[in-house]
């Protein structure tokens, strides 16, 4: 068996020390004190920071999801409808809005959100869907569906 | 009005003052409701770094109801920091000392322990009775719905109404009422 790798490793000593350290120091540039000035301290902290960054990529998504959920349930509460009922009603009427869009609508376009809540309520009424979670009856706006020509659209099977 | 400022709504960020009647309410359940208003979780613009919490005024905190045997069972722990400085105060003792303390601690514990918690607690006013200062009263614009219906006590119903109420049976002559 011929080991090609070993002879290559002997010849190539790896990157220059200066450049190797410089790469670490660049990543530690925003640290404070010895953590940015001493290599042996800096490299430990850079590795730790990179681990945090890796974990945070997932955490950020979870945090945003939690925030959207909080905002949606806050907006739903104003119209006396639970987030579950809203989602169920919108799914049944084939309105595929995700959490982000719903929470954006809730904070920036409250009237649009109110109409969405009304549509969800109307759709569940037409379907005869009884939600045991929702003790209170949804009191959103009453859309006059004949005026906006939604009735046929809501009644059709999705 | 310019097109940019057409939808500008300053009142969105205004602090609303809510009132909550603690009469016959479980403090630990109502703490979750109060917390929601204090932190601003009931607003669609909520963000942890957005100062959008409201003010909550709790009245009748002397009249709270603890479930089951909790008045005797629940102990509040305090430590002075010195050796042997630990004390355990039962809920009824604490309530006798300060009728606002149980609801205050319940709300404090319901919130997550971060730097903001103590500042949020500053926006909670608790009064043992129905009397609240005028400068607090004039700000209140909303009432938080109670979690439970306040039951009417039998001795608070007028005598003639109790007499009129249909009876299933009369007690026997020789029956001794406790």
UniProtKB/TrEMBL annotation, chain A:
GO biological process, one term: translation
GO MF entries: rRNA binding; structural constituent of ribosome
Keywords of this entry: Ribonucleoprotein, Ribosomal protein
CDD domains: Ribosomal_L20
Record's keyword annotation contains Ribonucleoprotein: yes
Pfam families attached to this UniProt entry: Ribosomal_L20
GO cellular component assignments: ribonucleoprotein complex; ribosome
Membership in a protein family: Belongs to the bacterial ribosomal protein bL20 family.
Protein name stated in the entry: Large ribosomal subunit protein bL20m
Species of provenance: Parnassius mnemosyne (clouded apollo)
From TrEMBL, chain B:
A single GO cellular-component term on record: mitochondrial large ribosomal subunit
InterPro entries on file: Ribosomal_uL13, Ribosomal_uL13_bac-type, Ribosomal_uL13_sf
UniProt xrefs under Gene3D superfamilies: Ribosomal protein L13 (3.90.1180.10)
Pfam families registered for this protein in UniProt: Ribosomal_L13 (PF00572)
SUPFAM superfamilies (alphabetical): Ribosomal protein L13
Entry annotated with the keyword Transmembrane helix: no
Keyword Disulfide bond: no
Top-level division of the source organism's lineage: Eukaryota
Alphabetic keyword roster: Ribonucleoprotein, Ribosomal protein
Swiss-Prot/TrEMBL GO biological process terms: negative regulation of translation; translation
GO molecular function: mRNA binding; structural constituent of ribosome
Similarity-based family: Belongs to the universal ribosomal protein uL13 family.
Protein name according to UniProt: 39S ribosomal protein L13, mitochondrial
Source organism of this protein record: Parnassius mnemosyne
């Amino acid at each position: 068996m011929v080991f090609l790798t070993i002879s290559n490793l002997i010849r190539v000593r790896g990157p220059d020390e200066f450049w190797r350290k410089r790469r670490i120091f660049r990543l530690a540039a925003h640290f404070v004190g010895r953590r940015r000035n001493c290599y042996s301290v800096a490299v430990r902290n850079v590795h730790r920071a990179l681990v945090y960054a890796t974990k945070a990529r997932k955490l950020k998504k979870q945090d945003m999801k939690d925030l959207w959920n909080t905002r949606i349930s806050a907006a739903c509460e104003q119209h006396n409808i639970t987030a579950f009922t809203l989602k169920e009603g919108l799914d049944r009427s084939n309105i595929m809005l995700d959490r982000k869009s719903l929470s954006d609508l809730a904070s920036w376009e409250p009237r649009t959100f109110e109409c969405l809540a009304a549509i969800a309520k109307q759709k569940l009424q037409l379907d005869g869907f009884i939600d045991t979670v929702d003790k209170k009856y949804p009191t959103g706006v009453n859309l006059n569906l004949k005026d906006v020509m939604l009735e046929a659209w809501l009644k059709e099977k999705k | 009005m310019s097109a940019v400022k057409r939808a500008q709504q300053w009142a969105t960020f205004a602090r609303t003052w809510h009132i909550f009647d603690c009469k016959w309410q479980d403090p630990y359940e109502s703490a979750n409701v109060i917390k929601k208003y204090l932190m601003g979780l009931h607003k669609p613009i909520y963000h942890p770094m957005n100062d959008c919490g409201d003010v909550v005024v709790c009245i009748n905190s002397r009249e709270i109801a603890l479930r089951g045997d909790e008045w005797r069972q629940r102990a509040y722990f305090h430590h002075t920091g010195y050796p042997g400085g630990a004390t355990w105060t039962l809920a009824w003792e604490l309530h006798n000392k300060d009728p606002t303390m149980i609801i205050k601690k319940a709300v404090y514990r319901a919130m997550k322990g971060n730097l903001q918690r103590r500042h949020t607690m500053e926006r909670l006013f608790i009064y043992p009775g129905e009397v609240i200062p005028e400068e607090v009263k004039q700000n209140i614009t909303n009432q938080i719905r109670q979690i439970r219906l306040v039951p009417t006590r039998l001795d608070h119903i007028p005598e003639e109404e109790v007499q009129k109420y249909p009876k299933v049976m009369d007690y026997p002559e020789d029956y001794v009422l406790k």
